[in-house]
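quick one before i forget lol
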Amino acid sequence: MSITREEILQIAKLARLRLTSAESEDLSHDLSQILEYVDTLSAIQVPDVEGVGLGPAEAPEREPGQIAPDPMAQTPADSAPDFREQFFVVPSPPSLGGADDPGGSP
């Protein structure tokens, strides 16, 4: 599979990128090579190899009493310097009249 220069220009437009003609040609070539490699990998047949991963259908079942909260879990308020009514409080930047001190009050 190859990607045309027009497709590259459309992708660049959607991503708001400005590409020179040389950059679009290089990108078209590089992406075409990547897609050819992916096609090669997709064509490989490995019938004796099981899939990897542990999706929800394969997860071991647990009793409701076995599930404990993660001791490392934190709420956003635990790591925020200022958190009020479920929102992060961010000081105004100095250009908008905020304090110069990053640790200053909002």
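fyi The two ends are 54 Å apart (CA to CA).
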